[in-house]
Amino acid sequence: MKKIGIIFAMREELDELLKSVSISRETTVYDVTFYECLINDNRCILTESGVGKVNSSRVTQLLIDKMNPDYIINVGVAGSISKNVLLKDIVVGTKMVEHDFDITEFNHEKGFIPGIGIYINNSNELIDICKSINEKDVHFGVIASGDKFITDKKEGEMISQAFDGLCVEMEGASISHVCFLCATPCLIIRGISDSIYKGNSKETYDNLLSESSNKVCDYLLKIIGRIK
User: Fold this and answer.
1) Active site amino acids
2) Which residues in the chain land under pLDDT 50?
């Protein structure tokens, strides 16, 4: 049995997984609630971090310190910044980047973090599990995170070109950053709820949030089923 921490940014995303599990215990630390359950004989701890890099970093560290998970998986939705990644597709983050981290004035490339570099690698073990599932409409590559909901096509394309990014969101890279510092294997997966190439991103997001969250949670259950 493995202990798996699962972080969602928003309650709407968490609720989609809660429909499929039975909670055995709840623990609250400060204002953060951890929901414990069994999924395929693995002990899973589910929690909601709140939106943005600071909130997600804080909850990741709490999860590691208080629950000592073997793995952390961050699940949620994201916006596509690639013409090849379509609405309701899934993206597995092989590498993460904080696209808004900028110390270019000190002769570093955009996204470079001292002691880290530009990219943060996620767990090869968990990525290999994802590849073994052979699910259609799943893409593997860079997910970019920053404290801004990206709706502008030009801005999204700049992020995609700078980092070879597939999608953009607001939590994943900071979660991977904390996991890297704490030597905890990490995986980031995203369901695509909007796209810079598909009309009004906010309207699309509002319409597809539940469906995209449900699809990525189904994919998460398949991943956990293969973790031994």
Assistant:
1) 13, 194
2) none
